[in-house]
Request: fold
Amino acid sequence: MSLYGSRRMNHQLEKYSRPAAMTKLLMPVFFLILASVFGCSDGSSDAEKRADPEKVAEIQKDLQTVLDEWRENERITGASLSVFSPPVGDIDLVSGSSKLSIDPERFPDTPLGSDQPMFIGDITHLLVAAIVVQLANEGSLEVQQTIDTWFPAIENSSQITVRNLLEHTSGVPIFYTEEFLDVLYEQSPNSSKSPDEVIAIAASEGSFFEPNSQYGYSKTNFIILGRIIELVTESTLEFELRDRFLNPLDMSDTYLAGIEKIPSGIPLGYEYAGLSSDAPTVIDGHVPQTPATSVITAEWASGAVVSTTGDLIKLVRGIFESQEYEDLLSELLRPAAHAAQSSGPIRIESGAGVFIWQDDDEQVVGQFGFLYPFSAQFMYWPKSKTVITVIANEVDSSRNPNSNFQLPVIENLTTKAKTIIDAN
Reply:
């Protein structure tokens, strides 16, 4: 295995080796204290609340400055940021490059476009969870039914419910075993992996814990849910995603990678290895890293959707604010019996495909997404109807080249953006 392949494997094993480690790694995004929020809605329409154009232009300028400075300070190749709040409406911003040039004086870097989709990783869970809840509301399945009907080979399948999968209390292990990582990255990176193959890999590991006895984040939960969707509907996951959400919400820049063709392609991803890196492909400290076909197809329902920050705004507002999907909310926002994080300054609850917490007595809903080397995040404040979404095509930050998890770095940008919105 190559040095960089070994590094990727070590990062993945560190993140996914056991529930406690996974929870600790995934939760820092929710520990920063968020800025104050808008007051209660007065019942007027978004248009009636809109600030004057000059004020909106000023806010947009401030947000662009923050995005540019954040990206440059953290040495992130490219990033997109979208916000929505009733006073400012929709603002879509982009900074940096989708591809770096080895000779920028002769061939300039390729700028990142706001309409270029990038991997959103675990934010895919919100879409999958929403379909499952829809199917439950339609009577096609029950969230409290056990999964042994579909997957009897999974340990404790007669005790694991659909709801356990949605909220990560199933005990099903992550599929990123050391052996499978070697297959994905080194042995057959160009080969597609089927969901059933991935589920079998995880099932062979047994169980992390007894179902519903604790919280343990596992991407495998959503691979299983994706297959349940297909088995129940006798259709494909990509069709159900598109028919139920992507098309109705006009998410024209969102696709299930590895399955659907993406017309404009996906920007190149990068890992910041530091200015002293001697990697043969390094450009000013950035090493290009493209997700392998094997990884994309293995992730599937757990993280293979690509989207734009603008489309994510449509998704979050559509699911949490539109009447069409209002019957999903009680189940999506139902806290699990075991919190995702109960220690620290903020208690983080696990809902269905999202996390929920309180900040200054206001509910906040969010999710962080990661598919090497892309990172993404959305946060939604229901009281003020504010949404902030971020996607970056860089895995390391300049402040910590030895860690590939971008989560606290993106949170830093989200907090700054929220402060600007609240101040205006």
